[in-house]
Amino acid sequence: MSSLTEKDRPIVQLLLNTGTCPRCIFRFCCVGSQAPYKRPYKDLMKELKEFLKKHPEKDGTVCFEVADPPCKRIRLENLEEGPDDLNQNGVVKQIPLVNEDNTALESSPVKVCSVCLGILQEFCEVDFVKKVCQKVKSADYQFTSFVLSVSLPPQLSVRECAAWMLVKREIGKLGLSLAKDDIVQLKEAYKWIIHPQLSEELGVPADGKSLFEVSVVFAHPETDEECHFLARACPDCFKPAKNKQSVFTRMAVIKALEKIKEEDFCKHFSCPPSSPKNYCVALEIQCSNGAVFVAGRYNKYSRNLPQTPWIIDGERKLESSVEELISQHLMAEFKADSFNFTSSGREDVDVRTLGNGRPFAIELVNPRRIHFTAEEMKGLQQTINNSSDKIQVRDLQLVTREAIGHMKEGEEEKTKTYSALVWTDKAIQKEDIVFLDHLKELKLDQKTPLRVLHRRPLAVRQRIIHTMESEYIDEHHFRLHLKTQAGTYIKEFVHGDFGRTKPNIGSLLNRTADILELDVESVDVDWPPAL
Predict the structure, then answer these.
(1) Which residue of 87, 183, 216, 522 pairs with 417 in a disulfide if CB–CB is 3.0 to 4.6 A?
(2) Do residue 352 and residue 300 come from a single domain?
């Protein structure tokens, strides 16, 4: 028991007598070494009691040498006992810790710790470790490391506070002190014990930065109401939240404990905390993998295919979308729960995307499979392309979350190239449109188009047509190739949108113009890298 020193003896004695487990005693003795916590429970209890039996005082009470102040005695029994329970020296009579032959230790059942409610007892044992690992293995995830997430009942903070107040008060009589922040955190001690066991059983290391999370949620229904007095004492700390089932969250309880006065706390909660009858229960053992990101470029060859599902008033308008044609295969291969699709801009349902395609990225949420070779990604790309003649993808690859930022970086400053088939009401000759070829850096004022006003705020946006090149077809038709600032509404630039886009092709030609077909020929975003 080299981790404990003489100054710890009163804390050990006091906490043992009030139903605290050995590992919680180590925490209150500020033992920062991990090794003692990992020892078998029965060995720890035996050694703690052996530690207390060393150098006993002749009068049967425990007395220790302290450099400054002088040696004092510590009360060893229930603090509420009256004067009749004091011995002739004014100290509470000591309860025997164990029979001389240690038979009490061997035969008596382990009592539930009054501080951790069994977290550092039952849930550090091999049976629970195997239960967690069985859940992990049955979930069928790919992972090379893990991080353990533990959710503890909020009342544990109340019980720990009560135990701390008790210890602080008693060792204060010896001229000693114990800061609350010096106590080893319960979660930290628990992970010291269980991490090596999980690591050995799963065959991978524990890593705080791992994307694979094993989460355990503990509860203790027997003591659920122990936090409630805090809501009456500190109502400002407990405010309902939409995503929380109870106002008694761990953070709210901790905040209230920091705010409440010690005397008010002691009026409502016993110090030491009462002995529970039951251990905590593990309500949930769940696994999750961090998101995986896949990027590429897509071409859309259909004029009857939206980029994302087209649903109006709960009714689906078209049977599929670019997003779904790509993601359904990724979801199946990565075995993900869900996905989020994003792209560099979007095209209308009747607009094709040609050339090198439009950059896109898909976030696959909680994937079971995460490792793919370059060849496997190439095969996945081919599977997507073989599944439909409406789209094709290229440069399909795994990317990081940070890399997706390149797709959105300076999106408004990027350029896009279009090809538009234009109709005019009045007959035109080639010389009527040739002047368009000489217009450079044409500035537009575009009021939010009527067709998107339901989903975009009303505003006037300045956009630039960098270059135009006309291609005469007949008296009423010509093709217009445009290089524009990203975010330019091309359809509105052609027909004017009832004067909401100025200037427009109609006003420039002094006649009514409309757009019959539109193709995106290039999206000048240099991402993702070409393969």
Answers:
(1) 522
(2) yes
